[in-house]
Amino acid sequence: MNTRISRRHFIKGVIYSSTALASGTGYYLANAQSTSPPGAAERLISIEVNGRTRRVDVMPQETLSYTLRNRLNLTGTKVACNRGECGACTVMVDDTALYACSLLTQQVKGKSITTVEGLRAANGTLHPVQQAFIEELSPQCGFCTPGQVVSAAALLMANPNPTREEARQALSGNLCRCGAYDHYLNGVMRAAELIS
Amino acid sequence: MTNMHIGQDFVPPDVEGKVTGDAKYVEDFRREGMVFARLLTSPMASARIVNIDASEALRMDGVLGILTAQDLPPSAPPENPMLALEYVTYIGQPILAIAAISDDIAENALDRIAIDYERRDFVTDPLVSLTEGGPDAYPEGNAMVAVVQEEYDENADVEGSITPVKWPAAEVEKFRNGREPEGVTFTGGWEYGDLEAQFAEADVIIEESFVTAGTPNHSMEPRSSMVYWENGKCYFYGSSQSQSAVNEGLAAMLGIEPENLCFINENTGGGFGSKGRTYPTMGVAGYFSRLLNRPIQLRITREEEFFIGVSRPGMQGWIKTGVRNDGTITAVDLIIVSDGGPSGRDSASSSAGHISVLYQPDAMRLRNIPIFTNTAPKGAQRGPGQNEMAVVLAPIIDKVAKAVNMDRVEFRRVNAPNSDSGIYERQGPMTSAFAAEAITKGAEQFDWQAKINQPRRRGNKVIGIGIGQGYHGAGGYGYDGLIRILPSGRILLHSGAGNLGTYSYAATVRAAAEVLQCSWENCEIVRGSTDLHLPNSSAQGGSNTTFTHTRTNYAAGMDAVNKLKEIAAAELGGVAEDYDIADERVFRISDSAVGLSYAEAAQKAIEMGGRYSGAEYPDDIHPITQRAVQGIAGTGLVGVAKDNLPQRGTPPGINVGFAEIELDLDTGKYEILNYLSVADCGTVVHPKGFSQQMHGGGVWGFGMAGTERHVYDPQNGLPANIGFYQSKPSTILDVPATMATTSVDIPDPINPIGARGIGEPSMGCAAAAVVSAISDALDGHVFNRAPITSDMIVNHVAQNGYGPQALKLNTF
Q1: pLDDT at B293 over 50
Q2: Going by C-beta distance under 8 Å and a sequence separation of 6 or more, which residues neighbour residue B41?
């Protein structure tokens, strides 16, 4: 009777059919043995998150945002749309900013993930983007902020001296309902100064 | 004298957590034994629930139970029920909740629940329902006779009874074609002045119809809840704009005394009016947790947030404006039919108020009727009433100005309110108003004359220049302030204001720090949980926190200063008037070496007890504040007071926006080249926070002008936009790379630090300025509709006659 068609439902359908596990629910999958049946996705995988190798037991249809938030307790990554529209869940995968809600954790096996929690230096010093965002009062409600921080950090990694227009393009995948764009751009430009 | 804190930037204490990911929102909290609940929602716009069979779902491993309306206190329409009982009146309406040991199991279990529905006719367009023979959204009818509120509260539930109201088809047809319907029923309205006489005074009279779309609030954080109960006390983690203002309503919803509720709200991912007070799913989470005796997280998805997350009502209207040749408006006659959705929200009075404030007609009449439809529930959204009127009115005002050969800026300046102006039907006073000064300052900084005189046509592109205004009543009176000085010398500023992202919870307590003349580094803001002893606060909405709570914190600060002086006199001799404060000391004026540090005075306050330590408190403070004081009594010097400062009418937030756009005649798209907003908000308390609200409101306004709207399939009642991009808020690429903002900076005399709020009119002025610019680019064409989408522009340019489309609402 539930007519909602979410991306999650869609992904679930695809994975179930492709792995011949269509008879089970998520609960049955979660309680299955780690040894996967032939042709199925491996359950126990390694991903590198914020510089640490993490062994995680993930379901085949599990998104990276779900794994980060619910298995690794990295709740800095926010889920606002869960359908690839807003960018609140942006993380770096091998230094590229991507939507964690639209990646299956299985897809990033063996890759390096950086979340907003991983941007601070080991001694606790804030990343220049974080410092600049504080100085420019970039966030408002803050729910999109982790995604904005990660997108900005990824930009500055690839281009330490962006123009304001380049920064604008780089943040264009991150929706801010509060409309704090001007302050975020000020933050990115200040961060570039801090880095230089 | 330069203020220590007011008017200075600072770093609010929650910012670091927001940039590091440490800031916790509802879904980030966990509790031992926590289980997960999800909602089953209606797939139909209007139906009767015949049967619910959850037996298969309840047999699933890991499923713990369901909650239905049978488990909840009864509610009657038009109250938005926590869960539907017999009838569902919109797609997405919660029918039941199911709990399981994991979110996935709960979601999968929803698919195993069978519900039999009996379909009913539905309606998505108010005028369709209002026409004789048209369908009604509720079995009881389509309109509500509301109980008139003593004082308008945009967050309050609408109370009244439902009844059928129909207009003759011929009158609806007249209305659809921009003419005044006659002999028809309205359920609300107001009037002042001699309308007939003032229209007779007019040299020019212009009649126009208008339509504005409903728009979802689209808060980034869906309204999830996490709840647990311990020893009869409810611990509720909620996504809310407000803190203390939620307590009594939520306690009543859960059937408990307020002292048995601890409401925790550290951060909120946006609300924009939709989370001002309690909302129905809070009750679902609270009751379900109590039923199962388990901590519960009720997760609300993006789709669910679209439906239950509240939206702005659309309007269908008619306006008749009389104007003299000198540009002064003599009379305005206004009709508004509102899309009340299933909740009956109607902002028509506020829409009319926008006109009464900013254009000061000598006489005015509003006649209105909200009509229930089977669309998403309607509620407060940033500048409710005023902003949708601002966006659709701006080109009409431009047309009126043109009719009397007056420049658009000058026309608005001639009609602008001042500190002696009356507003709304009662023509009551404002605390102060400097709208003409804002217009003048903006026109100079924007270089209005040069911009309108520049060459406009650049190939297939044309430059449009626009001006818009926004207004919202921005503040209230009579709430409480609470501060505490510890024997360590640390100063605790207790804030009952919610953290909705404006940082006003932090900026307003700086009024107390200003009074105490203390260093900010020595202050700590206490906030975010009832158990931390927070004072009674207004709801955080309506741009009111700045005005309202600089007053309460000023009052609490003054109470603390007076007590410091009294303690010094008691300890060191003389009377309180012999003493003054500076550098966190209270000292004798005649010999500054004689005195006490704040820390020493706080220790003395504990020893003296009574009202100095909080063991006693004023009779007039709210019970919430009384409980807060009881909780901290004996820990230091307590400053607590109700805001009994002088009052004078409504504190207005007034904004003026100026926009320059480049419109592509081939595609109908436009780029906003320049945008300037000017605020008449008194003293700016927190410059960066001010900039955030001005720019953020501007971004909202751009969306309202061009891209945000509800759309429903009229055949099936299905919404076409349940995600962000089908009713698209502006992205970073839709707004100018830099935006300018400034303020008139004339202090308000009724606020002790001179401040008023500004968060909502910053949207209305931007939306109005952009549509004014679009109209200007198209030789003054009035679309009579908002938003103005690219297809409308292309059709107009192609002379396909795109106009108000016979006032159709909720469709393309």
Answers
A1: yes
A2: A2, A4, B91, B92, B93, B94, B95, B304, B307
The number of domains in chain A is 2
Between the two ends of chain A, the Cα-to-Cα distance in Å is 57
Q: Does B85 touch chain A (CB under 8 A)?
A: no
**In the prediction, which pLDDT does A12 show?**
37
Residue B693 lies in a domain: no
DSSP 3-state of B149: coil
State the average pLDDT over residues B126-138: 96
Contacts with A, B 270-289, CB within 8 Å: 270, 272
Q: Is the pLDDT score of B804 beyond 70?
A: no
Judge whether residue B307 has pLDDT over 60. Answer: yes
Nearest CB neighbour to A149, from listed B19, B219, B688: B19
User: Which of chain B's residues have a Cβ under 8 Å away from the Cβ of A136?
Assistant: 688
Tracing tokens 């997960």 back to the chain, one arrives at B36
Domain with B237 in it: what CATH number? Answer: 3.90.1170.50
**Is residue A31 in some structural domain?**
no
Contacts of A172 in chain B (CB under 8 A): 731-733
pLDDT surpasses 90 at A142: yes
A167 and A137 inside one domain = yes
Is B732–A1 a contact, with Cβ atoms under 8 angstroms apart? no
Considering the domain boundaries, does residue B178 fall inside one? no
Instruction: Kindly identify which residue of chain A lies nearest to residue B739, measuring between CA atoms.
Output: A182
With respect to residue A29, please indicate whether it lies within any of the assigned structural domains: no
CATH number of the domain enclosing B495: 3.30.365.10
Between residues B290 and B800, the one the model is more confident about: B290
Query: In angstroms, what separates the C-alpha of A32 from chain B's closest C-alpha?
Result: 14
Domain boundary among A71, A96, A118: A118
pLDDT > 70? residue B591? yes
Task: State yes or no: pLDDT of B721 exceeds 90.
Answer: no
469-508 of B, contacting A, C-beta below 8 A: 500-503
- Does residue A18 sit within a domain? no
CA distances from A120 to A50, A51, A136, B19, B395 (A): 10, 12, 18, 10, 50
Residue of A nearest to B268 (CA): A141
Partner-chain residue, chosen from A88, A116, A137, that has the shortest CB–CB distance to B220 = A88
CATH of the domain at A139: 1.10.150.120
Is the C-alpha dihedral spanning A163, A168, A173, A174 positive or negative? positive
- Classify each residue of B151-166 as buried b or exposed e, where b means 16 or more C-beta atoms within 10 Å of its C-beta: eeebbeebebebeebb
Specify if B97 maps to a domain. yes
- Residue B150 CB partners (closer than 8 Å, separation 6+): none
Contact (CB<8Å) A85/B21: no
pLDDT band at B150 (very low <50, low <70, confident <90, very high): low
Please say which residue of B591, B626, B642 terminates a domain.
B642
Domain count, chain B: 2
B155 pLDDT band, cuts 50/70/90, is: low
